[in-house]
Amino acid sequence: MRIARIQIVAGPHQGARTYAEVLLDGDGDGDTDPSYLPIADPFDPDTVTTIATSRPVPAEHATLLAPCRPRVILGMAHNTGPADRLLPPQAFHKSPHSVIAPGDAIALEAGHGDVDAEAEVAVVIGTPARNLTRENALAAVFGYTCANDVTDRAAQASDSLWTEAKSRDTYTPLGPWICTDLDPTDLTVQLGDDTGLGPRASTAGLARGVVDVLIYLSSVMTLHPGDVVLVGAAGPSRRLCPGGISRIIVPAIGELTNPVVTIGGAAASPLTMHRGAIPTR
């Protein structure tokens, strides 16, 4: 199952935001445009959807939002290959305010030119989880989505906590939706831009896979429904170029695409950076 968050932009429920099941061919006509069937908030079962309809919302009437609203975002440091297994596991925080949706712009501030995209699989937590084991770790997972762990390399070198490097506004694109029925052991991940695609990589090549990551993180803190964990970049990073696009492709999930822009000094308003594009996959 695929779960998205959408804003309805036309029709009787215009302006409403809701979670929705993604129907890749909901109208049965054989095309590839998705439609969206509104559902209750999967991370808060006490919340009932305000969209009283049993009819799917067509793609042209919806804009994809970030697929969840995490209160906590965690990433794994030095988890990019087998050699990193020699290092102890280490995590970092990313600000939840850095999350943007598919089609929203990654905004690079003037003077910050050494900024890279990193293609990752993100785990979305489904149940409260503490001290997970190898036997029950995946039971705590709601699903998986694509993530772009945007990183300012100069700030990363000067800030040992990586706050400046990882938590600037727009530095965590997520989407296009959450897939709930995947095996995360060997997911293909690919990073690209408007000039082409980089090499294929796999979560199987990470120093620590999803299970090991969740065991470690839940030994430190309780993970809660809707929290997001970026498990590490399986392949090489790619420099972001203003005026271009950044693409994260996980074939089992879909494609996350964001334009790249430059802004002057202070962060731009989200209204000026939002394109509202809907991915085709």
UniProtKB/TrEMBL annotation:
<dbReference type="InterPro" id="IPR036663">
    <property type="entry name" value="Fumarylacetoacetase_C_sf"/>
</dbReference>
<dbReference type="Pfam" id="PF01557">
    <property type="entry name" value="FAA_hydrolase"/>
</dbReference>
<comment type="similarity">
    <text>Belongs to the FAH family.</text>
</comment>
<keyword id="KW-0378">Hydrolase</keyword>
<protein>
    <submittedName>
        <fullName>Fumarylacetoacetate (FAA) hydrolase</fullName>
    </submittedName>
</protein>
<dbReference type="GO" id="GO:0044281">
    <property type="term" value="P:small molecule metabolic process"/>
</dbReference>
<dbReference type="InterPro" id="IPR051121">
    <property type="entry name" value="FAH"/>
</dbReference>
<dbReference type="GO" id="GO:0016787">
    <property type="term" value="F:hydrolase activity"/>
</dbReference>
<dbReference type="GO" id="GO:0046872">
    <property type="term" value="F:metal ion binding"/>
</dbReference>
<dbReference type="InterPro" id="IPR011234">
    <property type="entry name" value="Fumarylacetoacetase-like_C"/>
</dbReference>
<keyword id="KW-0479">Metal-binding</keyword>
<feature type="domain" description="Fumarylacetoacetase-like C-terminal">
    <location>
        <begin position="85"/>
        <end position="261"/>
    </location>
</feature>
